[in-house]
Amino acid sequence: MSSSRFLHLSRRALHIVYPSFEAHEIDLIRCLSLHDLHTASRLLADDIPRQTSLLSRLARFGLIEEARLLFDLMPRRSLITWNAMLSAYSRIPSLLPSARQLFHQMPHRNVISFTAFLSALSHSGLITEALELFHSMPDRNIITYNAMVSALVRSGKLEDARKLFDDMPERNSASWNTLISGYAERGRMADARRLFHQMPDHHRDVVSWTALIAGYCRAGDVTVAYDLFSIMTPNRNVITWTAMIGGLVWNGFYEDALLLFKKMMNRAADVKPNKETILSLVYACAGIGFPRLGAQIHGYLTVHYMDGDDRDGRLSKGLIHMYSRYRLMRSARWIFNTERTTCDAVCWQSLIEGYILIGRLDEARRLFDEITSNLDTISWVTMIITWTTMITAYFDGGDVSEARQLFNRMPERDAAAWAAMISGMVHNEMIPEAFDVFLEMRAKGFAVMDHAFASLLGTVGSISCLEIGEQLHALMIKTRPVTDTILCNALVAMYAKCGDVAGARHVFNSMVSRDVISWNSMIMGLAHHGKAHEALMMFDEMVTRGGVGPDDVTFLGVLTACGHGGLVDRGLEVFGSMGSVEPEMGHYASVVDMLGRAGRFEEAARFVKEMPVEPGLAVWGALLGTCGMGSDLGSAGVRKLVGEWAAEKVLELDPMNGAAHVALCHVYSNEKMGHVAEGEVREVMARKGLNKAPGRSWIVL
């Protein structure tokens, strides 16, 4: 609370706000705030301990100016009084000149005086001067050593901090915890864990455990963090629970975080959630996507008056993010308008993203124009993110022209903005333009992000231009170690789609880690190029030694391979082994196609009749297509009957399907005297104005 509040609140109100102050002390503080020093000096009791106690309490509540006026009014001061004033200055870096002046004015100094000034120097970042002061001290105690170790840790000088720690004549829990926290905060978890185990049992407390747990969470090793949390011997406090809950949220384990909070509320009756706990839950609710649960958390904040303590705006920021993710923009906007003074650029970004999610691109643009009207008010990073978000939104909406204009207006660009442009061009099938942007980006010296490479490789695969794909691959090898799984998957798919199965296999074999997409890309590539036996061998290897389970795409690839390779029995066996993977229409169509290619039309028809779901256009189309493949497949009479049945079903679903009419013509053309029926079908096509799109090939110029 600022000192001006003393001028407007009643004595009773001030006593409620500041229960640490007595009524006569509040009168004295009012005089100090008004600079009525004459009255203040009359109210001042000639009691050094009481005056020093009041000075310390004023400083603790941030009333530094009043504390200094009281200090100057005191007729007599003890060394404790001087130290109290110096300690007050030492906590605020901007007051270092005042701390320095007071330190040099002190008639006497002790170890507390030196330690307070050392803290003032370290909090202002003057580590070298703090070290010089430390080494010049006539006497040091454990608090002095801890202050210096803490200063070195804060400045990132962990090796110097460890050396000083090892030289300490004695240590307490704070000494150990300071260094453990320093290691943990900088990701040096092996050093933190080693020091934790070296720590004497009587010094290892809840702070030590919490520092280690939080460190492992920051490093992404949530399993180790939770194991420590489960076995820790001291009673957990709210900071420990919050560290674990927040760590789970930070690493994307939203449901686990909410369950742990529930466990805390049920089992730890003496632990009550604080603002940080609830803030973590807000982000967990945003991530898990349960609006009602998020509203309950918001209600808890309101009922327990936590939303009133949001001077830093972090709660508002979290709630706006949560409601924007839920697409509840009225709630998000209400919080934004209510707490606008504490809302920063991140809140604006959340609102913009929320309006984009609900298709309100006009409102998103209005907010964007408002926040970017004065670029001095937002950071460079926020500017880049906001601009890139809007560009991506325009591309997703198909407004390529507006996206390009916005990109050209960007004050500065980073690699992510260029990647968004490339991906947007690819998304809108503007392939030459995408490569133009890519070349422009390279010419301006920007590194190519993995996301941009993946988009371009997908494009190369779709147009089967192997030469350009190989050039991109060569550039990747020159500029980075190609170990990212997503990027390697894109390479495997590109080579496979371009017909270079050996190249796809080479990349696949060199991968450090593989996921289900890696295996699927390889199996699909082999299947589409007639290598059925190799695709099946790859599938067997995936199941037995791949470390990942097959999904619906995997089974689709294997069934395609079996169909092209004539391996009907193996294909039926694979279809029957899908287990927990629910067959989709594509799987049923693949089985029908496989049976039809083998001339087993009766079996294919029976399979369609026995399907547990209503056959779709893909299934009927596959059945019709195989019936018109050739006269040497199966019984002519059965083929004709099944073909007519399939054609009838296709045309019920899509009467203007030109390909179905042509396929039926093929069914009749394979039969004796079928030219009459074929002619009738072609007459129907003519009346409907139907034409089958001719097949086309292309070359790269």
Can you walk through the features of this model?
The protein is mostly helical. Helices cover 70% and strands 0% of the residues. The chain contains 41 helices and no strands. Helix 21 (329-338) packs antiparallel against helix 22. The longest helix is centred in the C-terminal third of the chain and has 18 residues, at 636-653. The protein is elongated and about 120 Å long. The model is unreliable at 1-5 (pLDDT under 50). This is TPR-like protein.
What is the gist of this entry?
The protein has 701 residues and is mainly α. Helix content is 70%, strand content 0%. α11 runs antiparallel to α12, α24 packs parallel to α26 and α28 packs antiparallel against α29.
How do the strands and helices of this protein lay out in sequence?
Layout: H1 11-17, H2 23-33, H3 37-43, H4 48-60, H5 64-73, H6 79-90, H7 96-105, H8 111-123, H9 127-136, H10 142-154, H11 158-167, H12 173-185, H13 189-198, H14 206-218, H15 222-231, H16 238-250, H17 254-267, H18 275-288, H19 291-303, H20 314-326, H21 329-338, H22 345-357, H23 361-371, H24 380-396, H25 400-409, H26 415-427, H27 431-443, H28 450-463, H29 466-479, H30 485-497, H31 501-510, H32 516-528, H33 532-545, H34 552-565, H35 568-576, H36 585-597, H37 601-609, H38 617-627, H39 636-653, H40 658-669, H41 675-688
Helix pairs in contact: 2-3, 4-5, 4-6, 5-6, 6-7, 6-8, 7-8, 8-9, 8-10, 9-10, 10-11, 10-12, 11-12, 12-13, 12-14, 13-14, 14-15, 14-16, 15-16, 16-17, 16-18, 17-18, 18-19, 18-20, 20-21, 20-22, 21-22, 22-23, 22-24, 23-24, 24-25, 24-26, 25-26, 26-27, 26-28, 28-29, 28-30, 30-31, 30-32, 31-32, ...
